[in-house]
Structure formats: C-alpha cells, structure tokens
Amino acid sequence: MTNEELRIELIAAGKQAVKHLIKVAKKDILKDVDMEDDLAADKMKNAAAAKKLAIFDAFEILARVEAEALSIEQSKGKASRVDTKQGFAERRSK
C-alpha cells in the first residue's frame, strides 16, 4: 500500500473513532444513583471527566482528520483553499 492509501484508511478510522466518542458523550452520566451515597459525588465527577475527555479527543481527532484530508487534496493538485495574502476583490480585479 502507498502512503496515500494508508492515510486515507487512517482518515476513515479517525472518523469512525469520532463517531464512537460521540456515542460515549451522549450517554447519561450515571443512572440510578443514590445521592445520599458518599461515593455518588465521586462517581459523577469521574463520569463527567470521562465525557469531557471523550469530547475533547473527538475534536482533536476531527481537526487532524480534516488537516490530513486537506493535505491529500493539495498533494493531488486540488487545493481547496486559496493560499494568497490578497482578499477576494483584489484577486478578482485583474
């Protein structure tokens, strides 16, 4: 396999991982928790921290996947963004 094919597979795997992390983030923090239990607060704190980590990881993976996809497009000569310091009007005025 070429490097480009491997990168495309990694992008697909990254998108799948983001979907799984979204499922984790959507789940209830805790069900059937007795609030009088001394450990309930600790359990809720740990569950909330796990959700936060899942959300941040999903955003980080998604950002990297987008960057790699853009890199692949640019390497094929299909740059989707204009890499100039000029604005739209300045580029179109010629």
Question: How would you explain this protein's 3D organization?
Answer:
- With 94 residues, the protein is an all-alpha fold.
- It has one domain.
- The protein is 69% helix and 0% strand.
- Helix 1 packs antiparallel against helix 2 (40-75).
- It is elongated.
- The model has no long low-confidence stretch (mean pLDDT 84).
Key structural traits:
elongated, mainly alpha, 94 residues, 3 helices
C-alpha end-to-end distance: 44 Å
By secondary-structure content and strand pairing, the structural class works out as mainly alpha
Q: What number is the mean pLDDT?
A: 84
Main sheet record: none
Rough outline: elongated
Poorly predicted spans: none
The amount of beta strand, in percent, is under 5%
Number of helices: 3
Radius of gyration: 21 Å
Helix content range: 55-70%
The tally of structural domains comes to: 1
What pattern of helices and strands is seen along the backbone? HHH
Q: Tally of extended strands?
A: 0
Topology record:
Blueprint: H1 3-26, H2 40-75, H3 88-92
Helix pairs in contact: 1-2
